[in-house]
Amino acid sequence: MVSLSVYFESPFWVGVLEIVEDGELRATRFVLGSEPTDPELYAFLMRHGVALLERAEAAPAVPVEEHGDRRVNPKRAAKLAARAAARVTRRGTAAQEAVRLEMESAKGEARVNRRERERALAEHRREVARRKRIERRRDR
Prior knowledge:
- It contains 3 helices and 4 strands; from the N terminus they run E-E-E-H-E-H-H.
- The chain has helices spanning 38-58, 74-87, 94-139; strands spanning 2-9, 12-21, 24-33, 62-63.
- The protein has a 4-stranded antiparallel beta sheet.
- Strand 1 (2-9) and strand 2 form a beta hairpin.
- It is elongated, with a radius of gyration of 24 Å.
């Protein structure tokens, strides 16, 4: 099942695309800017929908708890909720967790790319300096 949520996160409007299949949720977050109208949102999805689906599919999966129809004693429910709250270090929905994991992986990729660019730039500068040094020697 695929769902799209659009909400305001100051100062921009943000969309979250969620994919739930086989008890796992994958999500991706994207910034829309100003408040989109329905036709603008439709045009955006037609233009970038495939890329968003690919990003969501590449995101790490988070297990989704299925809610049973069985009634639970309120005191027992409170005790279970307290235990779950004590175990959980981060609070939020499965979609928020999936978006957080995606952002962490993107941050890691950006770090690797930045390091590679800096290394290539430093190597280029060394090569230029070496050529200049050789040219100065030849001019003597």
